[in-house]
Amino acid sequence: MSQRLPLPLSTSMFGSLLDDLPADIFDPTFPGACERLDHYVGVLAREVARELSLPSGELVDIDALIEARGWTLSSRPTLHWLLGTLELYGFAQRHGHAWLIGELDGHDPSSALKVVAVEADPSVAPAYEVLALAARAVPGVLAGRIRGEEALFGPQTMGLWFSYFSNDNPLYAPSNRIAAAAAARAAGPAPRVLEVGGGGGSAAQEIGRRLVAVAKTPWLYHFTELQPAFLRRGARLAQAVLPPTTAFKAFRYDINEPPWTQEVEARQYDLVVAVNTVHLARHLPATLAMLRSLLAEGGVLVLGELIRPAGEGTVHLELPFSLLSSYRETAGEGRPAGFLTEAMWRRALHEAGFQQVELLPAQLSRCVDAYPGFYCAALTAR
């Protein structure tokens, strides 16, 4: 079994493939931080597999495993992530619908790798804490003793998630920056902006800053989020980067519900933007069509998303999200749970009525060929 990750990483290895991205998308510390996290994820996956007593040297079928262990039927996305990640790192081989797991022992513990990574760059600590928290929760969630939402989100962990989805976290910030760059290019002067699923406000910070920097200061900015604690914090951060002349408003919005039931008027926005949100739609083309209905003539939808590299390929930072019911429930309609491939996004956007779809970076598939851990992108749809 050959190991694919980690690979030596530097932004220069992509050559001209990133020429359409602004130079400041990737922090100078990103390559080293990403390489260390890659190593950690591979080790963590092996530890989780050992904790679950997955058998080495024999074929493992997910459905058969769920039945034999008495795990919940919703365990499939997490187990698919685990076996797919073992395959990505060279510790399993896929044979049809089953995997042959190799030797899982003989490595430094993930806790030691975490110490080294955080000593090298303390700003990455939230990424390691989130992954470690998720790994500890896996056995209980699979067995149905606890829900993923209960294990990962609560009063004691909310601050951790604010730190994770932050522009101070160099491992997450590129998602916000690429989406903001796409928004700044697509928007016209003085746009009316709606952000859906704004979370803790880190995407809004980048979007607002870049729009102002290119003299496209929003005429209005509506910041929305479903979770109350995120909405309060996100609204403060978003409003702080916008000038007083921008008409700002924050309110709850559910992408799975019709806009007209949430007092959102049709065709009132020039730019609708969402970062790592719309993949959670239960009925994706319907949600995209509803977002399209909010765009004024000539308006643009910008989606910042982690892009799944292949139809059943794994995103190696997916573990925490695979434990959440909102993530698991998206599976179906010819799509996996959660993150989608570029082709799936294009198909769903066209089904929703968008005629023109562009990707940033345009050469994403070649970036993935150069480095399998490259997932960040933004889709612009008109």
What can you see in these coordinates?
The chain is α/β, with parallel strands linked by helices and 382 residues long. It has two domains: 154 residues, no CATH class; 209 residues, Rossmann fold (3-Layer(aba) Sandwich). Helix content is 42%, strand content 14%. The chain is built from 15 helices and ten strands. The chain has a seven-stranded mixed sheet with strand order 6-5-4-7-8-10-9, sandwiched between helices. Strands 1-3-2 form a three-stranded antiparallel sheet. The radius of gyration is 20 Å and the shape is globular. The N and C termini lie far apart (44 Å).
Set out the fold topology:
Blueprint: H1 30-51, E1 59-61, H2 62-69, H3 76-88, E2 92-95, E3 98-101, H4 110-120, H5 125-143, H6 148-152, H7 158-164, H8 173-186, E4 192-195, H9 202-213, E5 220-224, H10 228-240, E6 247-251, E7 269-275, H11 284-293, E8 295-306, H12 319-322, H13 325-328, H14 342-351, E9 357-360, H15 364-370, E10 376-381
Parallel strand pairs: 4-5, 4-7, 5-6, 7-8
Antiparallel strand pairs: 1-3, 2-3, 8-10, 9-10
Any key phrases for this structure?
382 residues, alpha/beta, Rossmann fold, 2 domains, seven-stranded mixed sheet, three-stranded antiparallel sheet, 10 strands, globular
Quick structural summary:
With 382 residues, the protein is α/β, with parallel strands linked by helices. The chain has 15 helices and ten strands.
Biggest sheet: strands side by side, in what order?
Answer: 6-5-4-7-8-10-9
Largest sheet: 7 strands, mixed
> What percentage of amino acids are in beta strands?
5-15%
Helix content: 40-55%
Average the pLDDT over all residues and give the rounded result: 91
The CATH class name of the largest domain reads Alpha Beta
Number of strands: 10
Q: Considering the protein shown, what is the CATH homologous superfamily of the largest domain?
A: Vaccinia Virus protein VP39
H and E order:
HEHHEEHHHHHEHEHEEHEHHHEHE
CATH topology title of the largest domain: Rossmann fold
Helix and strand content put the structural class at alpha/beta
